[in-house]
Records
---
Amino acid sequence: MRGAGNKNSWALFLLILAGIVLGGFIGMLAQDTGALSWLNYGQTFGLDEPVVLNLGILVITFGLSVRITIASIIGMVLAIIIYRFL
């Protein structure tokens, strides 16, 4: 998969994913500090209760929850900027 300008789309995807994870981690670290607590402000969406499929001998549980914070958005934007300069 090649994008415009002969850049790898998988590299962009991995950089964005790393930016979101690192931003979320920084947001969690900053939640207890007074001046930086706004970085952890965000919204959680997904399944509140997991869906359980019981097949007798096999039980499968489906669940997904996503939390987007200000810090993860900043991390994603920084990852895109870094990708443009690579």
---
Amino acid sequence: MMRGHSPWALPLSVLAALLLGLLPLPELLAPLRPYWLALVLAYWLIETPDRVGLGFAFTVGLISDLTFGSLLGEQALRLVVMAFILQRFRARLRFFPLSQQALAIGGLLLNDRIIAAGLHVVLGAPTLRIEFWLSPLTGMLLWAPVFLLLDALRLGGWRGR
């Protein structure tokens, strides 16, 4: 029996990712904060490409820029690049086991950091500290639990993977 898809799963997960990004962390843990929005967007791009695409990534990125007070368009650009790469390789990535998906997501998050660092260089912003590069590792480690949680939210229950 096929379970119905929850129409509220997508907006609630994006809102939760925005709130997790705003959650204050101790200074020691702040560099380990995963890019929650990228993880959530990656899930939706892989699982429901008919609902989520480049336009959605751009819109969520602009909302994120406004929410976090960052340079307008920075996160939008980063998320659109990630969405484009995910759309391009979705057919392969979708059928990887979660451990291999986590490695691919880690690579995408590292690519996101490279884009952010490049923007800082181009705009003459302060150089990023070495801890800046730890976040993709955290995101990679959290991919499986995030994927399973969002899958349960979307499908209305747990499924084997």
---
Amino acid sequence: MDHYKSAFSFYARHWKKVLLFGITILLPLSVIETFVSNYFFNLFSLVGLPTMGSFPQFIFSTVFLMIAQIPFIYLVRQEITGQNATIGQAFEIFFTNMFPVYVMGVLLALLTIAGTMLLIIPGLIILTLLIVYPYVVVSDELRWFNGLKKTVEIVKNHFFSVLGVTMVAGILTMVINFLFLFATLLVTKVYWMIVLVQLLLKMLIVPYFTFLIGSCFEEWYGFGYEEEYSF
């Protein structure tokens, strides 16, 4: 529970930077992800394969989520190490690591889909093993397969903790999305307004859960676990 409170407190302290990165990075990525995902879903639906359309949606959603977290992970890391988080450096880190995280995000999504099609559990294991890859990239500047190797090493030692936190974050996100969608539908049936509310909601909740997992990640990583660490 302490991690949840700490993440909220961190969010409140850095709300201006959260809003800036939300508008300049997270929101544009959300628009692109929504457009591309819906395009492929509708494309498969036209040929009578709507289920297949969910696979591209999952891929783009996973890639979007991993890339969008980068500047917010940077904020967490700077706070924990006691360094000043500058806007310029945040953008630099984002653009430097965007492509490696993008490629690994695609790989993660494909492996998860393949594992899920086998028996669901392998897909869940793969997703858990690789989900914190962006945190390793930002924390250690380990990209590509070096970062992948380090990610697996960390998660193997804290597998159920990582699984638990990511599942709670995922479930809470779905519940919040559903409640806001339901509330929006009570007010309007206009499609673009519904999409806009969902985009703005995503812009607000993704940073929080990034801070939550980021604070947990530092504990799994073995940094900032002592008394002197105050997130």
---
Amino acid sequence: MTIKLNVLILNWNSANDVAGLLISIAKSHFADFRVILIHNATSDEPAIRGLYNKYKNIFETHLVVNGSNLGYAGGNNAGYEYLKNNGLDGDVLILNPDVRVSPTTFEKMHQVLMEQGVGGVMCGALDQCGHSLYDYINLVGFTSKYRHTDRDSVVTDYLAGSCMMLKRQPLEQIGLFDENFFMYWEEVDLSLRMKRKGYKLLSTTKCKITRAANDNSRSLNAIKYSIRNSFLIRKKHPEFGLLAHYYYLLGMLILATAKTVKYKSLSYLSGYFESLIYK
């Protein structure tokens, strides 16, 4: 059977979420896919191996075990390198473990991906109560604006890292993620590099994913790495501009202060100031 799609799922202390995601994937109407489970060196490796052993008898499943935590960028890159090293063809879908797909998600997204000139596709997202989070994303300076639309498909400034489907050809030209980011902003960098090669990025509303809310610990990492990596984004993509960066850093300072007050923890403000100098 020809495999049209490789589904990369990166685990970092998320075995329970991965289990739920695989349940939803098993209901997919789109049959031409394989799953690459990537384990990023956390203590739940036995659970991930158990899921691999279970699902390899349901659909084609492979397991990649990293010796250390390579972050979102390096972890997914390890899955992509596994595809290349083993001669596995097909486009790439990156899914976060806390995502749930509908039976038509793969099919609807891949239909859009096959349109002429398209390099990558995302789709609309719902929260766990069924409320719409976004249909596509505008990037205004360094700030993401989550938009809604009545159109079936629309141009998006970048692809959401929680669910992004990528055509194999541009990946062969530009690679997947820049591992210097580790986590956060790497999907923006990839999207900008893809657009520079002339590829369109689209979002479809013909299907939706469901996303879980980020927990408190992840919000701390979001602040730290978002600030750190904003310097790397500005270095790689000067069109963002210095003034826009200053506004972004001020906004993040306000956010870090608010979270410090809310959670009564100085870790947010200390993380902010530690991240101001990109190394």
